[in-house]
TrEMBL record:
Matching InterPro entries: ExoRNase_PH_dom1, Exosome_comp_Rrp42_subfam, PNPase/RNase_PH_dom_sf, Ribosomal_Su5_D2-typ_SF
UniProt xrefs under SUPFAM superfamilies: Ribosomal protein S5 domain 2-like (SSF54211)
Full protein name: Ribosomal RNA-processing protein 43
Record organism: Debaryomyces hansenii (strain ATCC 36239 / CBS 767 / BCRC 21394 / JCM 1990 / NBRC 0083 / IGC 2968) (Yeast)
Lineage of the organism: Eukaryota, Fungi, Dikarya, Ascomycota, Saccharomycotina
The entry's keywords: Cytoplasm, Exosome, Nucleus, RNA-binding, rRNA processing
Length: 347
């Protein structure tokens, strides 16, 4: 009885999961990546303006759809209204409160429902911090400046709004309020790290955002309701709800600091090992892979770099470098910056 050995072959997609290190090194030694892209080549990026009317029961004020390779991200912007204190003359214009951010929630489609994953929560927090420290949205740009609905003699309502230099006492009793922006990002067909495509989707949704006018009812403004508690009489001040004007002709673009807006580019750095005829002779060098894709690249490229370049291609708005798997030196960082600049010029 003879033992027969049969060679087992796996398709590239299966080998990526079974032995990602072997699969990636074999491809890199051939000058290719498992996704068959060049080392410095990014996946095609397609951006379109969304037309969402409603998202999870809330009216959307801005939206976008971004496709990056096989990954698609749909972003919808909704808003809330909060009461804000009157601005103080002692408030410093250089304080962090001068700028604000949007509150994003990332949901990766995975065929089941449940609590958010660590990746979703980390990605949401990173998007929030990036928008905040990029100084794209000023706190003043989200001031709502409510108008007032006054009843005419015939019973109809007329809404009047304050002018930029309004000095009338009509609006003095109306409390200040501001908009709060929420971003809902849904990811489909995930095929790699998601920060670049989610950041692009969020930025384009903000560019597409239009804020509505808001008003209060004159008849309910600052009503004093008599109350009684343990034999004592008093008054409870009751303010009206802030209502949204449905007239789309009055909606205006969200003011953004466009000079601070940039394009995010991410890279993975890995050590490429080339074996010679002598097994002891091993030469290693760092290889930069733009826009990681697939299981092997994502799991083996532990060293990462993320760079955001502004639209004028003159300043870096964000730089993040994480080591742990490859040697990252000054030349590596310079090359990543140069590739990011070239990409921002062509997108």
């Amino acid at each position: 009885m003879t033992n027969e050995f049969h060679q087992i072959s796996f398709p590239p997609s299966v080998l990526d999961r079974l032995a990602p290190d072997i699969s990636l090194q074999r491809h890199l030694n051939l000058g290719l990546r498992p996704c068959l892209r060049n080392f410095n080549e990014f996946k095609p990026l397609e951006v379109s303006t969304g037309n969402l009317q409603e998202l999870e029961g809330n009216f959307t004020v801005g939206s976008s759809i971004v496709k990056n390779g096989n990954t698609t991200v749909i972003c919808g912007i909704t808003l809330g209204i909060v009461e804000t204190p009157k601005s103080s003359i002692f408030e410093s214009t250089d304080s962090e409160s001068t700028y604000t951010s949007v509150y994003p929630v990332v949901e990766i489609s995975r065929g089941r429902s449940g609590a958010p994953t660590d990746e979703e929560m980390i990605l949401s927090q990173k998007l929030y911090e990036t928008i905040l420290h990029s100084k794209i949205i000023s706190t003043k740009s989200l001031e709502a400046k409510p108008g007032m609905a006054i009843a005419n003699d015939d019973g109809s309502l007329e809404i009047i709004y304050p002018t930029p230099n309004e000095t009338s006492d009509v609006f003095s009793n109306i409390k200040s309020c501001s908009f709060v922006l929420y971003a809902h990002l849904k990811v489909f067909s995930r095929s790699g790290p998601l920060f670049d495509v989610c950041h692009t989707s969020l930025i384009n949704a903000l560019k597409n955002t239009k804020l509505p006018k808001v008003y209060v009812q004159d008849s309910f403004n600052n009503i004093k309701v008599p109350i009684r508690s343990k034999g004592n009489f008093g008054h409870l001040s009751k303010s009206s709800d802030v209502l949204i004007d449905g007239n789309k002709a009055l909606m205006y673009d969200l003011p953004l600091n466009h000079e601070q807006i940039g394009l995010s580019s991410s890279f993975g750095i890995i050590e490429l090992e080339s074996n010679s005829t002598n097994d002891m002779d091993i030469d290693s060098k760092s290889v930069i892979l733009a826009d990681l894709e697939g299981d092997s690249e994502e799991s083996e490229c532990l060293s990462r770099a993320n760079i955001i370049i502004d639209q004028d291609n003159s300043h870096m708005k964000h730089v993040s470098i994480v080591g742990g798997g490859a040697n990252i030196n000054i030349d590596t960082i310079k090359e990543c910056i140069q590739i990011a600049k070239l990409r921002s010029m062509n997108v």
